[in-house]
Amino acid sequence: MAKKNVNKKIRIPFNKPAIMGRELFYISSAVSGGQISGDGKFSKRCHSFIEKRFGAKKALLTTSCTSALEMAALLCGVSAGDEVIMPSFTFVSTANAFYARGVKPVFVDIRPDTLNIDEKKIERAITRRTKAIVPVHYAGVGCEMDTIMALAGKYKLYVVEDAAQAVDAKYKGRYLGTIGDLGAFSFHETKNCICGEGGALLINKERFIERAEIIREKGTNRAKFFRGEVDKYTWVDVGSSFLPSDILAAYLYAQFEKINDIRLKRKRIFEYYYANLKALQKEGLASLPFIPGYCRANYHMFYLILASGRQRDEVMRRLKDAGIYAIFHYVPLHTSKVGRSLGYKAGDFPVTEKISSRLLRLPFYNNLSRSQQGYIIDVLKSSVRAAM
Which domains does the chain show, CATH number per domain? Predict the structure, then answer.
């Protein structure tokens, strides 16, 4: 009896972590080596890689980008009553790292092209209470760092780069995360180089290094002890346990070994999306990502901005019905419960609100196949036109 031909619905997730090389071998090596706690041999290799590849004076792995931002807040010496400038269009960790210490996040609208903080609107947000500027490099495209650094110098402010999405991306030839005083990377499973959960603090000023080591080691001078600089270690400052397991570092180091391959794979995926969806932009049905010529992207994501929130939601529903998991992104922080408690309201940042309600992120991961992309593109085009 002939089998019935069942046309199963294709399932394409938004993200799918990929093993790129020797991840499992390195994890086994870490375990057999007898140290899987923090700062083992693979952590040290990752630190060295980040410092040499990107040019940071010092790199320290952390349990997440959130942890790296929390360390940065402590290193900036923020306290209750201070203010820190950042976009509302960002993940909650950007604000929470400072808000948890009594600091008020002062939000600024974004540019409609790169979706980064609008550098022209930063200066009017600076007050005598301002302590730092926190630019967020959205989708791995650099903020206007020349302007931001000039403002920081003029008003004597710290700059903490939230480069969670920007590992291996550049602004005018310099790696993002290494331009400000401090930078924060993410190695969450949705990022380009991953270890499940993890991050790194990039320290670009020598004066922060010693205290950063202390903060990361629960407020102790343990790092000095292991280097033989003191005969015992003790509690000397505030801090917490920000060290990731060396198992995670082992996985991450294998990803670092393939960082050029990862960028090339993602570049091809990005360019195929762009080439096959630019007709939608020409027809005025959607806007595609914009990368200034002086920025080198890392191809972290691909998104479209549709004509309306209603259309975005309808397209997302149609894609899901076809087995394709596309998602929206940030809900503006100024419209959140905490944002409203700080005195913000809907309408304060019109570009942010307009973009966030219409943005759609497409599936994007290292091993996304050409056939999967073709299917996504076909369904997306028909869905956009049908949802008008």
Answer: 23-257 (3.40.640.10), 259-386 (3.90.1150.10)
